[in-house]
Amino acid sequence: MENHKLNEKQKKAVGYEGKHLLVLAGAGTGKTRCIVGRAAYLIEQGIAPEKIQILTFTKRSASEIVERVKASLTNNQAQSLNGSTFHSWCNQLIVRYPNLFGAAGYTVIDPDDQLSVMKMVCGDQIIEYKGIRIKPQQLIDIYSYGRNTRQNLSNAIREKVYKGKTDAETTDEIDIIRSRVEVLLKAYQTKKGEGRYIDYDDLLLVVANRLRNDAEARDILSHQLKHLLIDEFQDTNPLQWYLLEPFLEIAKFYCVGDDAQSIYSFRGADYKNVHLFKQRVPESEILILDKNYRSTQEILDVSNWLIAQSPLDYDKELQASRGSGMTPKLVNVASQWEEANFIAENILENFTENNKQFADHLILSKSTYYTKPLQAVFIQKKIPYVTYGGRKFMEAAHIKDVISALRVVNNHFDEIGWMRFLTFWDGIGEIKAGKYISQLVAFEDPLGCAQNLADVIGGQEGETIADIYNTIYRNAGNVKQALQETYSKMEQALAFKYRKDWEEKRKSDFPVLEMLGDNYASIGQMISEGILENAKQLNGNPVLEGSQISDSEIKDHVVISTVHSAKGLEADVCYVLNVSPKVYPSAWNLDSEEKVEEDRRVLYVALTRAKNELYITRDTNSINTVNKTKNAGFSSKYFLEELPNQLTEQLINPYSLIKPRDISKPNSIDLSFGMDFS
Ligand SMILES: Nc1ncnc2c1ncn2[C@@H]1O[C@H](COP(=O)(O)OP(=O)(O)OP(=O)(O)O)[C@@H](O)[C@H]1O
């Protein structure tokens, strides 16, 4: 089992006997291995797996850790081990204890729905002042930032609208618009209450507030939970800490983190939180790991150099236990097309000639958007790939259409659900739908809706809608059946609405949705949990990627990921895309030292994913702009501007290097050839 491959310090961490521990360690030093080892160790010590909760930042890393624990133990010992994100954990608690948390009958709304609620609240009101315009999405950002960072409204406005500026003029402007923002945010809160909606941040707050204020709640949970294992601790934000704090007396904390990999400040994370651990957590210790097992020294040299350029003191110098390897390549490209072709050819060469698999390759980009040309080239050259960091399955429009029908049966006060479901049908616009909704939410319960729906709407549409509603109502305890019947009744209309890409893209998602439904005991559970899930793994089969069902046999694929979704990942060969001026650091961030330093950490996370080969690409055209990005107060220069030559090997025009050799002078051709004119 994994435990056997631990070094002395890792063993000490895994078998820690004290109360709370923070394992503070650099990239690739075995933090994930320590979490896996810890969970396995606790189970072997006789702790019931359901009393251990693993918390991570992505669903993917949660399931990966749980799978690894299971694989390291025999006899299905870890069958009921639970790993989840903060949101999904809180949601599970709320679903398990509906009375305790007082949220029975509430519907969880995702960011799209949150925006719909905010739009309903704003109507045609727009906050405008001196060239500043605050739209509904920005109001949500302000609200969420304030709650996640636990800062007051003025500070949240300052950060989200005025990019953190603190001058007197800005402060005056904030004072003026503040009260108007407050009115709309309060109206949003009221609307949530009326529709019985819980937004993502509410999930954490509902649990946190209950536990902080209610000794009975703490007592109940203390029988259910003994150990909290928290990954990426450096990225916990003040709201998450507010949630975790009451658990300090309930469970033992085992946290792992790296201050140099903190990349979520936009969600309020503060890399310094790891430094405050001992102060905040009584009866705690910190253990440091310093030996990197992932990368060769040359890769670490570039990463160490990058982080040493920072004015912040991370006190990190990673040493490779694996020793020396290949020098990283700095690949200068003239266009995204050239970059994409270089990478594709490189991967194909590795696959056909160097005995590597597609899965040995990881491509990292700041944004998914930037990788579109690359994806096009991969499709053209038939390189299998998956993307991490894109839109989630349950957020796709055609899925939301069908789910909206389930939502309104589950909670008939759900106006967003009604609006989507009713306007799905030809002939019902928003105005008509609005009228119907006001009648429908007046019924006391879903049964009332079921009985009267056909009359409220009338006509053929009324019949169809009522038929679907009743079908779901009857099958509320058999989600798969409910989905199958709903889909068959909506299929024709769906195929028409999405006729552009129905056959190629969307249709195949429905069998998957039905399979997904099979995992839930009721439609209520599916709606509240399913909305939070990525649905990438179903019954152990990788089924969904974007809008396709991938063949479960094909497991070998290149991973294209945003850096933010790549935490914890590693690969033999890594390509870090577009490490160009104005991107690292971003031209948008030059006025803030904190943001520049966060960009540096993003690049650090990306570089430290590589085990053996690292390719850093950059756009040659933008290199000329390097010297224009100087700023008075602090250094915001292009991160690679002073990269010592010996740390990388430069490749110029790399794609032309691997194109077939042609002769320098063109030959003439004969076009009067091949046709027999006789
Ligand atoms: N004691 C060890 N002996 C051999 N290999 C190890 C040991 N500890 C960790 N590794 C290997 O080193 C690599 C990095 O480990 P792991 O992913 O746990 O690090 P990490 O600290 O979580 O990294 P990061 O924070 O960069 O994601 C993995 O391939 C892991 O298998």
Question: Outline of this structure?
Answer:
The protein has 678 residues and is of the alpha/beta class.
Secondary structure layout plus pairing:
Layout: H1 8-14, E1 20-25, H2 31-44, E2 52-56, H3 59-72, E3 82-85, H4 86-96, H5 98-101, E4 107-109, H6 111-122, E5 127-129, E6 132-134, H7 136-149, H8 153-161, H9 168-195, E7 197-199, H10 200-213, H11 215-224, E8 227-230, H12 238-244, E9 252-257, H13 277-280, E10 284-289, E11 291-292, H14 297-308, E12 319-320, E13 329-333, H15 336-353, E14 361-365, H16 372-380, E15 385-388, H17 397-410, H18 415-423, H19 430-440, H20 446-457, H21 459-474, H22 479-497, H23 502-506, H24 509-517, H25 523-530, E16 537-538, E17 541-542, E18 544-545, E19 548-549, E20 558-562, E21 571-576, H26 593-607, E22 610-619, H27 620-623, E23 649-652, H28 654-658
The structure holds adenosine-5'-triphosphate (ATP).
Distance between the termini: 80 Å
CATH superfamily of the largest domain: P-loop containing nucleotide triphosphate hydrolases
The CATH first-level class of the largest domain comes to: Alpha Beta
Largest sheet: 7 strands, parallel
Helical amount: 40-55%
Tell me, briefly, the overall form.
globular
Q: Which kinds of small molecule does this entry bind, naming each only once?
A: adenosine-5'-triphosphate
* Widest sheet, order of strands: 15-20-14-21-22-13-23
Catalogue the unreliable spans: 533-554
β-strand number: 23
Strand residues, percent: 5-15%
When the domains are counted, the total is 4
CATH-derived topology of the largest domain: Rossmann fold
**Oligomeric state of the chains in view:** single chain
